[in-house]
């Protein structure tokens, strides 16, 4: 198993390289690079924008080739020297391949350079936002799995019963309600003061968090997370519950279960010693993608509504602003995390079903 894990870890390197390379060159043909963004701001806000660009070049810089010409539409009416200074400030005066090689060298050491528009180090920006995204992604995924797997097993065991019908109806209703709409309902009822004023609407912790005792800090942390996590969980468990049910139903109807029953094994032993291992494989396979989805994309609207500065909101804002160092660093970290979770998922396969042997492959 150690050799298999080592090979998988080695594959992380070319996979990361391929994803970053493809996205780097695709972005070259995307209209509206950061230089055009800066020029548009200058034309609307005046020369004060230049002061916010900071001094010196950046370690990691990406742009489209249009930014390389001072005669494109966005630069009309501006002194060519001003445009050249903007390109130099953003580091876009370098050739494309030089920027690409420089980016690969910096990313290999997790040096993501400076944000083009937000100011400050990209890694610092990501570290500041990580606690919010990790909190939302981790607890939401954990709660969804803790609800969905037992519920799906119960539905499979009681397939066609009144419990199955009513639980399916509730699942469909929960799935039909968008998370952001449920968040609005939670805010109106429990946080606006119109009905109740039980939960906060801003931040991950209170302003006096450092002055609280350790158990008060834990309570304050979950007090702030209650409504956002509820909003993310409400529609997230429907798909996993039905997947669990269908997976168990498929296994329960197989010949080896009929044989086990004929030998006199009780239903509990059949379910948890035989069916469980086989049925859980497809559920475990979907964990990395489910976690990454919630971690980076599913929480963006929730972050906005509850004033939580997470990775999802940072990535969206950076994409709109064409802040390529932030966009590519978020992509890099997301890809790396997904690949590591994929390896962990394979290890979980062997834990659930020891008969699986990746070395034999």
TrEMBL record:
Residues 130-345 form the ABC transmembrane type-1 domain. Keywords: Cell inner membrane, Cell membrane, Membrane, Transmembrane, Transmembrane helix, Transport. It is a multi-pass membrane protein. Gene3D superfamilies: MetI-like (1.10.3720.10). One of its GO terms (biological process) is transmembrane transport. PROSITE patterns: ABC_TM1. It comes from the Bacteria. PANTHER family: INNER MEMBRANE ABC TRANSPORTER, INNER MEMBRANE ABC TRANSPORTER PERMEASE PROTEIN YEJB. Belongs to the binding-protein-dependent transport system permease family. NCBIfam families: PRK15133.1 (NF011712). This is Inner membrane ABC transporter permease protein YejB.
């Amino acid at each position: 198993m150690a050799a298999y894990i080592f090979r998988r870890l080695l594959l992380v390197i070319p996979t990361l390289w391929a994803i970053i390379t493809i996205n780097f060159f695709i972005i070259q043909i995307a209209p509206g690079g950061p230089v055009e963004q800066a020029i548009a701001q200058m034309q609307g806000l005046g020369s004060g924008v230049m002061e916010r660009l900071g001094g010196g070049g950046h370690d990691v810089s990406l742009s489209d080739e249009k930014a390389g010409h001072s005669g494109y539409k966005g630069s009309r009416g501006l002194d060519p020297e001003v445009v050249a200074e903007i390109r130099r400030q953003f580091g876009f005066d370098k050739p494309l391949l030089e920027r690409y090689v420089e980016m690969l060298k910096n990313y290999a050491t997790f040096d993501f350079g400076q944000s083009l528009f937000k100011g400050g180090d990209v890694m610092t920006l990501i570290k500041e936002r990580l606690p919010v995204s990790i909190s939302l992604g981790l607890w939401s995924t954990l709660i969804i799995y803790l609800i969905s797997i037992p519920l799906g097993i119960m539905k499979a065991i009681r397939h066609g019963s009144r419990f199955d019908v009513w639980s399916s109806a509730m699942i469909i209703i929960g799935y039909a309600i968008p998370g952001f709409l449920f968040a609005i309902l939670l805010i109106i009822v429990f946080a606006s003061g119109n009905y109740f004023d039980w939960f906060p609407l801003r931040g991950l912790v209170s302003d006096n968090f450092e002055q609280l005792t350790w158990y008060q800090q834990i309570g304050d942390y979950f007090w702030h997370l209650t409504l956002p996590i509820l909003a993310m969980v409400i529609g997230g468990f429907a798909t996993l519950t039905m997947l669990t049910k269908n997976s168990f139903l498929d296994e329960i109807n197989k010949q080896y279960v009929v044989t086990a029953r004929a030998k006199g094994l009780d239903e509990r032993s059949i379910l948890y010693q035989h069916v469980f291992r086989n049925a859980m494989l497809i559920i475990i396979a979907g964990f990395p993608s489910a976690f990454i989805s919630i971690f980076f994309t599913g929480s963006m609207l929730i972050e906005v509504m509850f004033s939580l500065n997470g990775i999802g909101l940072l990535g969206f804002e950076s994409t709109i602003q064409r802040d390529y160092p932030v966009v590519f660093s978020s992509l890099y970290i997301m890809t790396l995390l997904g690949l590591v979770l994929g390896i962990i998922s394979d290890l979980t396969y062997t834990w659930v079903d020891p008969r699986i042997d990746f070395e034999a492959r």
